[in-house]
Amino acid sequence: MTMLPTEFADLEPFAPKWCLPSEPGRYAMRLSSSMDEMYEFYEAIHPRAAAAISHLERFDLYGLPEDATNLLHLLYSMIMVSFPVEAWGQPRVPDTGSASFDCFTEPAP
Amino acid sequence: MARFPKPPEGSWTEHYPALGTGPVSYEDSTSPEFYERERRAIFKRTWLNVGRVEELPRSGSYFTKEIAAANASVVVVRGKDGEVRAFHNICRHRGNKLVWNDYPLEETRGTCRQFQCKYHGWRYDLEGALNFVQQESEFFDLDKDAYGLLPVHCDVWAGFIFVNFAPEAEQPLTEFLGPMVTDLEGYPFDEMTARFGYRTNIAANWKLFMDAFQEFYHAPVLHAKQSPQKYSAMAQQAGFEAPHYRIEGPHRLVSTSGVRFWEMDSELVKPMEITTRSGLFGPWDEVDLGEMPKGVNPAHCDPWGLDSFQVFPNFVILLWSQGWYLTYHYWPTSHHTHVFEGNVYFLPATNARERIAQEMAAVTFKEFALQDANTLEATQMGIESGYVDRFLLNDQEVLCRHLHKEVADWIAAYESVPEVPRP
Amino acid sequence: MTRLLPAQFADLEPYAQTWCRRTEAERWAVRAASSMQELADFYDAAFPRLEAAIEYCDEHPLDALPDDVGRLVELVHSVVMVSMAVEIFGQPKTVDSADAVLHRVREPRP
Amino acid sequence: MTQWPKPPEGSWTEHYPALGTGTVCFDDSVSPEFYELEREAIFKRAWLNVGRVEDLPRIGSCFTKEITIANASVILVRGADDEVRAFHNICRHRGNRLVWSDDPHQETGGVYRQFTCKYHGWRYDLQGACTFVQQEDEFFDLDKSSCGLAPVHCDIWNGFIFVNLDARPRQGLREFLGPMITGLDGYPFEKMTEHYDFVAENNSNWKLFADAFQEYYHVPSLHPQQVPPAVRDPGAGFTCAHFQCDGPHRLVSTAGTRRWALPEECMYPIERVTRSGLVGPWETPDVGALPDGVNPGKVDPWGISNFQVFPNLEILVYAGWYILYRYWPTSPRSHRFEATLGFHPARTVRQRVEHEVASVVFKEFALQDAGMLGGTQAALETGVLHEFPLSDQEILVRHFHKVVADWVGAYRREGIGAVG
Questions:
Q1: H or E, element range at B156
Q2: Closest-approach residue (CA) in chain C for D193
Q3: Less packed terminus of chain A by CB within 10 Å, N or C?
């Protein structure tokens, strides 16, 4: 069973883990992932991001087919892991040992 | 060496001579006794923003708000007549908390036709009137009209819902807000309904966290790693200067100049910013919000970055030049803890590309807020130790100076009134 | 796998590992940590066998129950625990109990 | 719903005219100052039930009781002469806590031959006498016979062990309990020795939680799940058959619901199969005639009588089993709640399962009360409201708060007298 549009079958291995509909889910997944896992995901998806965004742009945002919604969620996860990968070199924001900032509402999709 | 002109007095701080230029004490942020005075003089006495009208989309929509600093829980509801009202969240029968879900000490929201107490089933309509008493005939001379929910003063400006716990509000809401804030009227807050909401408990005094977001002196240092090394180095070298500060009554404003990331060398921005065309300052592609009211970018900075309006006591509206805005709320829960809420608002995205740019801006916002929050707990510990009790503030921190002075002034004004019975 | 319950109740064996619990505190904790689906599965399997189980156990004196019968009593106690969630509340946790706790600190055995 | 007759005055509340019918203030449940007054006026004066004689089954049996609000820790022990005694849990040598296990703040218990202080090894016998002083000859004019444990007044009624922390109790125990409570003389508590004990730390004032258990007006609203959805009446009320006040104590009797006589849809499946539920086992061993005091209102059919023994004990008496509640204040806004369910010892697995059902159901509904009362406490603490109306069904709430105020008032007047 595939989750993503066929054009993005190459990203399918990452879909079960990273197609996450909510920010708390994506943030928790980032914190519980190793840097290797996130590098691997980032390296795979980042070169495909422009094509993915162009693909999604063809649809009405509020009537996305399921596979497109999954792809959008995958892009959200790409943004989420870009901070550990591009800025921090670690899953958690440095020097934020005791801080949290919980997202309780976000637009859908 | 100033990059932007300063007022004729030579500095922003001296432009407001009541502020002085000497070192300040943060005892107001460590003393339990001072916190009690703040509660009485400020949080039980002034207008407090509790949300926006879009959170109450139809009649029967409600939310509750726990305001520990005013020792209050309120339920805010849109009545059958479309009016927004606020009530103390207490059943008149045995004093039970009326509206809650799962946990009585946590906030809740929803839509209902009436409020029903879980304890004995008393019911109140959306306008607060008591309309059902279980086994009414068992009571003695019960006048239902006299047992409606206790109202809290409530008013709405530009879609922002404010409450006031004073027996009589000393000023109407718009008079309290003053022209610097009310000149924002006309900004399309009502259209910007795509919202990311965040909340956290912070182990620091509420004023200290406000301070962190009302000066940008810290930004090049604390947030250096957020940007590529080359950009950070340049930013740190340059330091930070805001082109404009303004103080009006108890409220404050800082404007900053803009950064045109999209015109920069790609070594100066992160790959994900290029991919999503978005980042800390928001989506790079301009959205059309129509003509801006005169309160926006009042000093006509060009390029303009943002305006941060600090609405006394604990509410911030931050407008970005890229067509989105933030609100912050700082809700004290003790002298050294508070609940911080941050909301990020955009026009609803019209396609996936816009939505992804918003996601990037919201995620970046959280990364920054986490750094600030953690630093603050370290600040609280440092000043609570009490070994150092005088601290310097530079001209870029003029708004911090004003907040602490304003708080002290409100307490002094309140306590100078001869002792009369107070609630 | 070793048999935990009397042979006549082999059909409940799949639930024994999870639900044969000596104390109320343990039964409460398992209920709280289970999904409604898990609770309903156990209830649907064990509730129709409750009458027979009680009758079977009562062929032995209460103070000298063989090990497997003692475990069957524990399983019956668990059906009682789970019935509250399944029959009454429709969720594992007591409705409107918020953050309240109530610890059973002494109880008869078995 | 049966309408039970009211007293000739027209209501239960007016039958006790001293109660009035006006609104009631619950500031007594949020004020730290009032809590301090309750400490002296009530908990250091009233007889307090700390347990049952079954908790001390043989010579040397002992338990300790932490009475936070009275700043007291008390040892209860059955002596070599079979008498039950109470002592302050303090070694006479340097004031160390005498009997404790891992944590000196936690209650403990067991069977002891004597008490030995962990600090310097002084020993006391089960009657409290000091029997051994380590290196006695190092002391000066030490008279061991004057170094016994400090006694606490202790008496037993119907198997209930009471202590009184007053230097000289103003009343004997039976006199304090009065005729309504001692009307329970002869109820076979001593046969119901199979106990389920519960304890909880609740985030509400002790009186607010007691209030929830001394009125049934809230039951249809807070506990709708007590009956299956098919037979739930959204407008249901609850009318109690009989109320009675006697001195500081209170009583409410409700009519009996013969659940087993109801059609199947009126009960949950687990009740039908186990023949037990909310009102306990459907059948209990015959204990012969119950004393008249169990049902002084002669309610027929009778269900439960709920005796509230001032200040903090409740005894819920069913025909064949009983429940005890105790509320131990730990601060103005918190208390430790104890509950005990007592049954005839099960002789069969079926009986044991009947008891288990009653015990599990009890916990579910007690949790609903506890879960909500944190909200009541928080709302009252906002201090914006001070006047609350109480219905006739809540007469005991009215009486309870009035008695508390009366005792505090009496204490204050004595204090003023002493100063003057």
A1: strand B151-157
A2: C108
A3: N
